[in-house]
Amino acid sequence: MKLKQTLLFVVLSVSLFSCVSSKKFKAAQAKIDSLTAANAKLAGDLKNCNDLTATDASQKTALQNQIDALNKQIDFLKQNHDATLKQLQDLSVISGTQAESIKKSLDNIGAKDNYIQNLQAELAHKDSLNMALVMNLKGAIGNMDDKDINIKVDKGVVYIDISDKLLFKSGSYDVADAAKAVLGKVATVLKAQPDIEFMVEGHTDNKAYHRPGQLKDNWDLSVKRATSVVKILQNQYGLDPAHITAAGRGEYVPVAPNDTEEGRAANRRTRIVILPALDQFFKLLEKK
Questions:
Q1: 277: in domain
Q2: Could you tell me if 167 and 178 are in contact, meaning their C-beta atoms sit under 8 angstroms apart?
Q3: Which of 171, 196, 206, 254 is close enough to 267 for a disulfide, judged by CB 3.0 to 4.6 Å?
Q4: Are residues 134 and 78 in the same domain?
């Protein structure tokens, strides 16, 4: 009986010891796990702290650079301020006579500026009138071949170039019938502006020309061709001869080289030049 009791005590003791040991082991393991997690968190916090420290250092460096740049700008502005202040101090010693002289100079500059602006306005008005004249001429003449007639504005002057192929037969100064219709269209536009003045210029190539008993050279031929055109504008289309000038330029104002047939054909032309109203322009200059 005693033996049974003894064995029962031993079994109960071992079981109890085993149970206690298992609880302590689990508690210890839980403690280890908790400490491991805490250690991992502390390690992460330490890394984050180190990263923030590096970022703060970088931001501090950038801010310091900005501060240095602003200090340089402040120094530059101070220097300019001092220089400007000195200039103002120098200007403040201008005498009353000098101030009056400066005022008169400024007034003269203002008057000259107004004068120049008026001239520019007049010139712009003239340019617009010239462009309107060109458009009217092109509209009146219609779809002519550019090789036979060309209308343009150059440096404020209107030019109408008509080839001699259209106007005259070779070596002749008699205007062809077909060309008279073209001159009539030009005359219609010019007649609509009675105050306009123009010049008819005759031009030739450089080939020698001579007609015994009548014309001696290209000078004569260019003049006769110009006067032939003028007479048609006057007699057939009623343009005021007091507003017309006839001129011969011979071979001396070519628009192309005379070493090809095409170049010589371009040089044989009659030009109508719309003359600028110089008297009106000079009157404008007198208004100072």
A1: yes
A2: no
A3: 254
A4: no
